[in-house]
Amino acid sequence: MTTTRTLHGRILTADGWVRGTLEHDRRVRAIRAVPGDAGDDAPLILPGFVDLHIHGGDGVDIMQGGDAIRTVARAHARHGTTALLGTTMTAHEADIEHALHGLAPAIARRAAGAARVLGVHLEGPYLSLERLGAQPPLVVEATLEQVRRLHAIAPIRVLTLAPEIGRHVALIPDLNALGIRVQLGHSAGGYDDGVAALRAGAAGFTHLFNGMTGVHHRTPGIATAALAHAEYAELIPDLEHVHPGVIRAALRAIPRLYCITDATAATGMPDGEYALGSQRVHKCLGCVRLADGTSLAGSALTMDQALRNLVSLGLDLADASDRVSRYPADYLGLADRGRLRPDAWADMVVLDAQLQVQRVFVEGDEIPLA
């Protein structure tokens, strides 16, 4: 028999703020306003965060395979992430398969104390050699046969590709038919390549502005196609990957701009050297870079810090919450995650007035924070 529990506080519902109570078991059962129940010092109850781009955490990289994803999903759950996509790196097909075999059982069954793993974000190997960033130079042109093989091992929910490569644009409708959201990234293509891919069914952009051609008034790039046409795009709001002024511009241009961490094994760890796929990266003063220091290599960001960074840029808390919860859930077509309403999953993060995490619930289960 499932026990119903009650939380009291200022609740950010799908229809706005409610001061009162939220009753839940595995799902939200009722939200009730209670006059005088929650003062300004009452806890803030927000939808759990949904991160569609995570490579690692707590010293572990998803490309290691095996139980790595469980460690990563527990690490991010402690920071309020209640659902995520395990994200791969460009690698030889056998190494990608190894990572997917590790992800598959975690997708099928949520580990205790961990975020729900919704599926895979396949970031590469279908990228441009000219815009690799921290990815190794092991790119190939995508084929439907290869994607189907990988998809059969573990469900791919999001796939990043460079649209200017080979037959990538022509492949997009077939990928959509498999239930895969195609997004553009690690691309040396131009504006027209981005528009053609969107018309073919591409839906988003991978870490907007990073790993792609940018905004120029005579030679517009992939980022310009996003600003001009996109409904959705992901962005890393660590205030290192993208300048705050550029984040503000993207917020005005892209209605459902949402945030990801692009977190690496260095997340939650002290400064030092860590793995990012086959690469070695270094964390120093909050940034993660390749060994030569020339390129940012993912981040050490957590979603609770992403929320605080958005608020520091002037977003109100409800808008910031949408960009770390509701919009990424909407992007995957998940109407029962990323929002608090009856019958949605009881994925919740409880914050204090300084937006520090106090409690986390994944599908009604409270996550140990220590």
Describe the structure using short key phrases.
TIM Barrel, alpha/beta, seven-stranded mixed β-sheet, 370 residues
Kindly summarize this structure in a few lines.
The protein is an alpha/beta fold. It contains 10 helices and 20 strands. The longest helix has 16 residues, at 93-108.
Secondary structure: elements and pairs:
Blueprint: E1 5-13, E2 16-24, E3 28-33, E4 44-47, E5 49-54, E6 56-57, E7 60-61, H1 68-77, E8 81-87, H2 93-108, E9 116-123, H3 144-153, E10 156-161, H4 168-177, E11 181-184, H5 191-200, E12 204-205, H6 222-229, E13 232-235, H7 244-253, E14 256-259, E15 272-276, E16 279-284, E17 287-290, H8 303-312, H9 317-324, H10 326-331, E18 348-351, E19 357-362, E20 365-366
Parallel strand pairs: 1-4, 5-8, 8-9, 9-10, 10-11, 11-12, 13-14
Antiparallel strand pairs: 1-2, 2-3, 4-18, 6-7, 15-16, 16-17, 18-19, 19-20
Helix pairs in contact: 4-5, 5-6, 8-9
Descriptive account of the structure:
The protein is α/β, with parallel strands linked by helices and 370 residues long. It has one domain (48-338): Alpha-Beta Barrel (TIM Barrel), CATH 3.20.20. Helix content is 26%, strand content 27%. It has helices at residues 68-77, 93-108, 144-153, 168-177, 191-200, 222-229, 244-253, 303-312, 317-324, 326-331, and strands at 5-13, 16-24, 28-33, 44-47, 49-54, 56-57, 60-61, 81-87, 116-123, 156-161, 181-184, 204-205, 232-235, 256-259, 272-276, 279-284, 287-290, 348-351, 357-362, 365-366. The strands form five sheets. A seven-stranded mixed beta sheet has the order 3-2-1-4-18-19-20, with no helix packed on it. The protein has a six-stranded parallel beta sheet with strand order 5-8-9-10-11-12. The protein has a three-stranded antiparallel beta sheet with strand order 15-16-17, with no helix packed on it. Helix 5 (191-200) links the parallel strand 11 (181-184) and strand 12 (204-205). Helix 4 runs parallel beside helix 5. The protein is globular, with a radius of gyration of 20 Å. It starts with a strand and ends with a strand.
